[in-house]
Amino acid sequence: MYVGESPRLDRPTKTYAPRALLEQLGIRIVTTWLRDTWGLWLPDRRTVVIAENLNPVQERCTLAHEVEHVLADDSGCGTSTDTTQASRIRVERLADREAARKLIGISDLALVAKRGLDMRETAAELDVTERLLAVRLDDLKGEAWPATLKIAG
Ligand SMILES: [Zn+2]
């Protein structure tokens, strides 16, 4: 059990480790300078490329997104040329949604939501980017989550 400041989470979702999962799957992870994307999945090379200088939260969220491309056997991430634009957008949204589901447990979200934090604070508490938190909340739309967070800010 986590021992520390009592309001902090017990951290069950922190057990989701996308880097370890990629390594188990035999996927190489390369960190390099990237201009306009956080991560790439290169299936021909069985390699995930992530941008250098990401903070740990950004890196974990990026790796979690790339894991979903790997598991779905997608033809790439932001690199596919053999699919339509609409299809690429759908594939990216699916990867985001599945990543957000694995990174943000319902019970953790519920616990943090009770504290009346805003999006930035909630994301920080859950160790995810605000963008992936927004994806998770959108996924749960209609389940009363947004009402419990100060989404409008
Ligand atoms: Zn992607």
Write the layout of secondary structure elements.
Blueprint: H1 18-24, E1 28-32, E2 39-42, E3 47-51, H2 56-71, H3 85-103, H4 106-113, H5 119-126, H6 130-139, H7 145-148
Parallel strand pairs: 1-3
Antiparallel strand pairs: 2-3
Helix pairs in contact: 1-2, 2-3, 3-6, 5-6
The structure holds zinc ion.
Task: Describe the model.
It contains seven helices and three strands; from the N terminus they run αβββαααααα. The protein is 47% helix and 9% strand. It has one domain (2-148). The model is unreliable at 1-7 (pLDDT under 50). The protein has a three-stranded mixed beta sheet with strand order 1-3-2. The protein is mostly helical. The longest helix has 19 residues, at 85-103. The chain is globular and about 45 Å long. 29% of the residues are buried. Bound molecules: zinc ion. Residues 65, 69, 77-78, 92, 95 line the site of zinc ion.
